[in-house]
Here is the input.
Amino acid sequence: MEDYDRKYQKARRRVEEIKSFYFHLLIFVLVNTGLVILNYFTSRGNWWFYWPLLGWGVGIVAHAFSVFGLGKFLGPEWEEKKINEIIEKMNKPSETTQSTDEEDLSP
Here is the structure.
């Protein structure tokens, strides 16, 4: 039962991450649509709406990578794996003379 609870909590966190991204994307689309309309009606000759669109778009892409892509590389699973590797290194008996902790933990 404990294994099921752990998997359930992990799945729940994942669903929250995905939900958060889609909410972020929805707000991005709504706000930037409003900015395009505002820009069209207030200053047709001076198009400025693309600046916030571009800046916020970079944030959306970064959020997407953290949820669906590159985030797995440096995400919680990677962190847990690295922590376990370091603990294993710390628990291994030293084969040579005593060395400092920094040397034992080098990547």
Notes: Helices lie at 2-42, 50-68, 71-74, 76-91, 101-104. Residues 10 and 55 are 32 Å apart (CA to CA).
